[in-house]
Amino acid sequence: MExxxxxxxxxxxxxxxxxxxxxxxxxxLTGAGISVPSGIPDFRSPGTGLWANVDPMEVAHIDAFxxxxxxxxxxxxxxxxxxxxxxxxxxxxxxxxxxxxxxLDAVITQNIDMLHVKAGSRNVIEVHxxxxxxxCFDCGAGYELDDVPALFAEDGAAICSQCxxxxxxxxxxxxxxxxxxxxxxxERLATEADLMLCVGSSLEVFPVAGLPxxxxxxxxxxxxxxxxxxSFDCDAEVKLDGDVAEELPAVLAALALV
Length: 258
Ligand code: ZN
Description:
This protein is of the alpha/beta class and about 260 residues long. The chain has two domains: about 1-40 and about 90-130 and about 175-258, 3-Layer(aba) Sandwich (Rossmann fold), CATH 3.40.50; about 45-85 and about 130-170, 2-Layer Sandwich (SIR2/SIRT2 'Small Domain'). The protein has nine helices and nine strands. The strands form two sheets. It has a six-stranded parallel sheet with strand order 3-2-1-7-8-9, with helices on both faces. Strands 5-4-6 form a three-stranded antiparallel sheet, with helices on one face. The longest helix is centred in the N-terminal third of the chain and has 18 residues, at about 5-20. The radius of gyration is 19 Å and the shape is elongated. About 40% of the residues are buried. The structure holds zinc ion. Zinc ion binds near residues 136, 138, 162 and 163. Zinc ion binds next to loops.
């Protein structure tokens, strides 16, 4: 660490604490980076985890599910089992704590891993769906995460117990529309926010990447807590560039002093 860096980091956390304290409405927007400290690799990072040897655009596409559900589940089944056992980290906990103190209205997340809910956040908008439920592609019957393993047939596909149709996780695959109700709620929150707190997202994947612009256009401010460059760094009031699991608890600590 360069001389002075520690002080600069501390003052960025203090600045973010001031912005949170001053805002009537704060909304968090989170991406894959907030779950990395929980041991869930960002599939956009090359060569990591279960995505090491596959092209997500190919296997995580709705056409891949339609064409060959057993192959689709061959990739997804171990990923689902892994995700289901992961636990929230200090960054998820800090956002849940902010909400419980009445300082955060909602979390809008691109993540499907349920970690915000596990951490105790109550108002969570999962714009890419989640692994919590799966549904029959034919009759719409719904299944909880724990009920899916019993549906797997010998060829590896998950088969509906009502109609023998194919069951698909309720996550948004490439080539699918985002859930309209969740996106409408996310846009409403972004419009009304005095402060959007962007955590662990490069803010590159549309339409979610358009939400910070909605907040800015409505007169709100942006704060960014993300390692590496994002498209909105120049528009942000403050940027915290360290590990999210250290930065957000530091902001909570700073809030006690503001
Ligand atoms: Zn069915």
